[in-house]
Amino acid sequence: MTAKTNGPFVPKQAFFTKGVGKHTKRLQSFELALRDAGIEQYNLVRVSSIFPPHCKVVSRKQGIARLQPGQIVYVVLAEEATDEPSRLVGAGVGLAVPAQGEQFGYISEHHGFGMVQRRLSDLVEDMAATMLATTLGIEFDPETAYDERKEIYYMSGKIVKTRACVQTAEGDKAGLWTTVVSAAVFVM
Predict the structure, then answer these.
(1) What are the C-alpha distances in Å from 154 to residues 95, 121, 130, 143, 167?
(2) Domains of the chain, residue spans
(3) CATH for 13-187?
(4) Among 49, 33, 80, 79, which residue's Cα sits nearest to residue 186?
(5) Which residues, listed in sequence order, are joined to residue 73 by a DSSP beta bridge?
(6) Inter-residue contact 13 to 56 (CB < 8 Å)
(7) Nearest C-alpha neighbor of 181 from the set 107, 113, 89, 106
(8) Sign, Cα dihedral of 127, 21, 38, 59
(9) pLDDT tens digits in sequence order for the chain, 188 residues long
């Protein structure tokens, strides 16, 4: 006997969030970063980079209101940690949404060291927009600066919006673990 389904398992909404945590233990600093982001009470399952057609971006407050503790929640999650004093860590997710409602978009994620917030924000936004542009057949020179390509993307009329959610932090001066997270959180 085959089970019946009520349609595809596709998120209807998504929200973006970020956080920082510091602790003597790495795992606890990760937990504190999730708390700062407001997503510590869910069972997070990492998924890849597709933003579903017709998915609506809502505020963190609206998204969390639709979730309950212990729920399995799908996320595109970037995280990075250091216990080196003053070392810059960063984690970010970017989003590119197509103009055509039936087309899926892209979410990118990146984590690493030494990138200031603006540079990381541009990077993840660029990655998402470039993935979407190649899917949509938008012609561009990948060697040009992102600002120039961004103009081409928008002028094509095929990409309607892009955004980034990034978190950076400097490693704790006393050597505590410093963890940063950034996430796109899906709500069914």
Answers:
(1) 14, 18, 12, 18, 26
(2) 13-187
(3) 3.50.20.10
(4) 49
(5) 44
(6) yes
(7) 89
(8) negative
(9) 444 444 578 999 999 999 999 999 999 999 999 999 999 999 999 999 999 999 999 999 999 999 999 999 999 999 999 999 999 999 999 999 999 888 999 999 999 999 999 999 999 999 999 999 999 999 888 888 888 888 888 888 898 899 999 999 999 999 999 999 999 999 99
Distance CA 130, CA 158 (A): 12
d(CA 21, CA 59): 22
Rounded CA-CA distance 15/57 in Å is 6
Q: How far is CA 49 from CA 74, 109, 131, 134, in A?
A: 11, 8, 10, 14
- Cβ atoms of 167 and 19 within 8 Å: the answer is yes
39-67 burial: b if 16+ Cβ within 10 Å, else e: bbebebeeeebebeeebebbebeebbeeb
Single-letter amino acid code for the residue at 3: A
